[in-house]
Design a protein that fits this description.
mainly alpha; two-stranded antiparallel ribbon; 8 helices; 4 strands; about 50% helix; about 5% strand; disordered C terminus
Amino acid sequence: MSTTVQIKQQWVTSAPFRAHFQLILEQTGLPWRVLALAIGLPIPLARRLALAPPGRHRIRVEDARRLIAVSPEDLAGLSTELVGCRTLSRRLRELQDGGMDALTIAHRAGVTPSQVQQLASGAVVRCSRLTLLRMLALIDELDEVPGAARRRPTSLPDRAA
């Protein structure tokens, strides 16, 4: 006996959620990719909310709920919350081996060159969630450029206790 499961995707208009996303960007000063990673929104959706002109767009109800549940105040602790960041060292070394120096990585990710060097060397095993998100956002951005990075980050590490 086989069971068929139907998944019915529910959609809502994106306009109020786009406005909320834009407000959070404005109030926090976070780049849109960093915000997307912080709240678990798909990157293509975040790109559309941040960059596409207003129009007749829809988003999934689950993404709308995730987004509307976040306020700028919820993101204030990103710079003080510590998380594991060992997975970054290999990726940063790959970027450096590919010709991107620590200063360029730091500038593009919004961190300091010494942070990049410490993370790339593996000397740091924990960093702020904001630093991790900024680095993952840069890696994600570079993954869209052929030959700039090898693969997308698959998941965020668990929060450090």
